Amino acid sequence: MSGSAYWSKEIRKADQRSPKEGAAKRMDRLRGVLRDLDPAVANRAWREVGDAIQKITDRYTR
Prior knowledge:
The chain is an all-alpha fold. It has one domain (about 5-60). It is built from three helices and no strands. The longest helix is centred in the last third of the chain and has 22 residues, at about 40-60. The chain is flat and about 30 Å long. The model has no long low-confidence stretch (mean pLDDT about 85).
């Protein structure tokens, strides 16, 4: 099974169990992809992800 098919299947299974598990699998996949990038690009991507997650958290905790 190729890498993309593996992750698609794992994320789908995790989404069926719970949205939180699906999100965790997506973060695992992102971590694996960003591991191979230039550190400056990876750090910027993590900051953007963190900002997006914070916005979502703020929206649903009101």
